[in-house]
Amino acid sequence: MKIAKKPVIKNFKEPQERIRRVILDKAFLRFGRYGFGKTTMVEIAKDCKMSSGNLYRYFKSKKDICADCGSRVLQQRLELIQKTINNKKLSPDEKLKTSVLEVLNYMHYHFSKQPALMELVDFISRERWDIVQEYMEQEKLLISEILFQGKSSGDFIISDVLETSIWVQAALTKFFSPRYMEAFKLAELRREAEGVVNTLIRGLK
């Protein structure tokens, strides 16, 4: 008697996600070179070596691509902070400082030499502020995690961790905002960031 073979279940989602990542990669490069306004879906499709019709299978509009590009940048920033938090070799002081400098390096790398990307930032700020709000909430929670670790270890003296995380986040805005990346050299921003973080840490002791 022949044993029936089990049906092979193909994962169609993985190839689709891979294609979406390629589209976002190509679109981000084009936005950085030519800006959001001058970029067309036809050009993005050409960069991806696909037809415009095929591109519309993955994204309904250029605005959707722009929103996903912005979300990915913000998510990668969160991942940098989370990676630092997970580093057990670092003290809470070091985690706070390293997180700030890692995000600053990342932002300056992407935005200092690609001023056209500011059109992407302007679009998200104007039409998809919900993306920024969600990111800021997640960022605040990560900052509070560092502060909680510092409070638990006795490195920080904090009565309200969540409230303090709001003030810390506000103090770091300049070093996380893309608008400052083109205007200042990285060395200058790093020096300022270290000074601000050192001042914050002294205040948390």
Quick overview:
The chain is mainly α and 205 residues long.
Helix amount, in percent?
over 70%
User: What is the CA-CA span between the terminal residues?
Assistant: 76 Å
Our estimate of the beta-strand percent is: under 5%
Q: How is the main sheet built?
A: none
Which structural category do the helix and sheet elements fall into?
mainly alpha
> What top-tier CATH class of the domain at 62-204 fits best?
Mainly Alpha
At CATH level 3, the topology of the domain at 62-204 is Tetracycline Repressor, domain 2
Order of H and E elements: HHHHHHHHHH
Approximate shape? elongated
* Rg measurement, Å: 21 Å
So, CATH architecture of the domain at 62-204?
Answer: Orthogonal Bundle
Strand tally is 0
CATH superfamily of the domain at 62-204: Tetracycline Repressor, domain 2
